Amino acid sequence: MSLLxxxxxxxxxxxxxxxxxxxxxxxxxxxxxQAVEQNMAAPGGWSNEYEQEGGGxxxxxxxxxxxxxAYAEAALGGVLPRVAGELMMTPAPRFFHEHVLVKEPGxxxxxxxxxxxxxxxxxxxxxxxxxxxxxxxxxxxxxxCIRGSHRQPRRFIPNRFVDDSPYVxxxxxxEQFPSAAELESLGETVVCPAEPxxxxxxxxRTLHSAPGxxxxxxxxxxxxxxxxxxxxxxxxxxxxxxxxFEPGGLVDGDALDDERFPRVVL
Length: 266
Prior knowledge:
With 266 residues, the chain is α+β, with helices and mostly antiparallel strands. Helices cover 19% and strands 23% of the residues.
């Protein structure tokens, strides 16, 4: 029996994102809240602090699911892999990693416009990020997505979150990130407010951003769970990927048949 309406699956394929209301249960949210607090108290080796002005905090960390069991529980069981499988139309989604993003009140640093695909050392169109908010995210601080941008053939050199500078000056198959004016021409920008229990699902190639939290009195805690499907293959990038996974025996073109990327059979 399908968990999602056909309209949500169709919207995801067409627009590169969809907002799913009331999908994640209160018990799962409570467990994830505890996991995020544990994560922030004891960050992993790949954590980052992006806030530059000193008025708030923009924390992120990823790939802690082996040491924080709640992340693994949510990623490998329950509703999230089912959602990922239905959106990608696969009976066996593969978990790629989790990513925690916390903006405390008064954080001026935004999440700059980007698409996730170039940051990752993989290629393929069968993928989804499930952006799970643990706090109310009103429109003023919500994720913005450019409708249909995942179908653009253009791929952009990643920019650093800390200062929005490019990883490299030039790379074959990639171009410098476009100006704000050019971004507006790529498609309609849609704001995606969300509440705890909702999921904002978006494609790795969907262009997206989010403002800081200045003027917003609440925290904005999010755990994003990333999954891949049948066509995804290992790929070398001309920069250090994020997360900085080592090949571990994988070579370009290999399926991610590796214990770091477990498959969930639904």
